[in-house]
Amino acid sequence: MKDSINLFKNNLLNKQVSNEILQCNEITSEYGLKLSEEDVREIINTRNISLQKSGRIEFNGQIINKIITAFCDSPYISQYNYSDTINELVEIFYNYKNETLDYISDDELIEIMQEKFNNYCQGSLELLEGKVLYKIADNIRNGVRDYTNIYSEKD
Amino acid sequence: MNKGKDIEKYGHSIEDNFNEEKFFNYVLEYCYEKKLLDESVLANIYYERMELLKVQLKYYTKDESSSVMVELAESILQCIDYTIGIYLKTFDNIEGISDELKSNRLSQMLKQGQDLISEKILESKKLLGKINESKLKVDNYSYNDTIDYGIPLFFKEYNDFFAAHEIPGSIDYQLCIDNMNYVGIEYICNYLKILSLENDFCNNFPVSEINKLLKGYDKKFELLLINIFELLLINCLGVIICGKDLKSLNISSLDRTYIKNKLEKLSLEELQKELLKYAKVCWEILRIKDKALISYIKKSTLKVASLINQGIKLNRLEAVFISFNENNRDETIYYNDGDMMENSEFKKLSEEIRDCTLVEDKISLIKNNIKSLEDLIDMLSADCLFGGEYITYFKSLSHMEIVLLDKYVEELGFENGCEEEWYGEFNKYIFSLSEKERTLIKELEERIEF
N or C: which end of chain A has fewer CB within 10 A? Predict the structure, then answer.
């Protein structure tokens, strides 16, 4: 059955996604950030591996673009760590789509990641993944209404 | 139940592996093998199918998420295949299906399949209404629970848009012949059609007769997963074989001997033919005109023929042709325990008993003051009697008191009972009784309910 679902592994579609990501360079160049074709291939590869690891399937290739446009104005990202950070963020995103039980939308998760990365975590991906998102996922699983509050105590 | 008809429709070669659930996938494979569809059409269908999946997933996630778990995508794809399959089943032959696949878009077929599912839901709800009206007044838990809660739950939980191939709800009652090949609304619709037929048949008999038959089958028939129609049909056939009137469905042991003598020399095929003749007599006597019901009776008769055949071979026809329990030997005895004593009262009494020197005095104190089994067990465990005194006390009890005590200890979870001195003595006493007395005790115990 798994073989019968092949929504996105088509080379033609990969090329299309790759072009879309490269087009983001126009927006990010304002912040001195640019991805090479090699970087894009790596990011797409990371996405494919992350999807496989998290047992998910994607039917729309917009996530990478959304992550890039959300994070490009971060003061903690420079050309030096740009590609690596995007790679890590993509991996974290899919992992926490599962961990948050699909309770929050893509846009909301990216927004939370961006806000916490720029403020609470001060650019630390370890803190974002290991503490902030871990706590938020825990809040969601425990039915905490204000789940983005990482200081909340369990009832 | 329509399987036979469907198979004829799609040609002999489909018959062996015909799959109701994955009809669409099956048809694609079949058409490809028979060269009714070429690779380019199949590739196009595959592409459209994936596009449909994307659209359905967008609906499912309300366009808020661009990825889902693989299991979910698989389930929604199954739903799409199932819904298209329902539409394709409306064609009369495989050529019609392949033409449709070549000329029409899958999204259109999906829409038509969804409409058909909605019609089937309505039809099934009507059938459930009819079943509620013709429902038998019997105390079988699975029968009542399936009709009252299990199937209404299906309609409440059924999601025809994203999970049309699933069967939520809880269906415990087993039909005589059920087609487990169906899934989703097709299964429920088929189940309800058959259940309605079974009810129609059973309603030809007074409910008192049906209840007697079920009690004869097992005194705990309420809890069993049985099919009422099947039991009724077998006894009907038995009554007709014996040339008796269908007003009473009781089959006596003499009748069974007669049936055995009449049928034992027949092979299974001959037996099936013979039973079909009796089944025909049965529907004629009952003036059954419904062709679907007649066809179901025929199929069920063929099924029960093998049961009867086995019963004859094993000489166990009493488990197949059921006798009513006309006497009260098996009636349940309900025991209500008396009031328990207050703690202070109990303490005083136990001290009094301990102070007695003669066992006869102890016994009379116990008999005059203790009115509940729980108090009696407490007293026996409270070191009021010693050694041989226990046996003397047990001997003074009536037969029914012994039965109650034994049953209470065994069934109501007398914890750590085996470590108590009195329990050992009680067992010794029971084993000192004759075999016949012990059997009587066990028989009575089975009829008692606390």
Answer: C
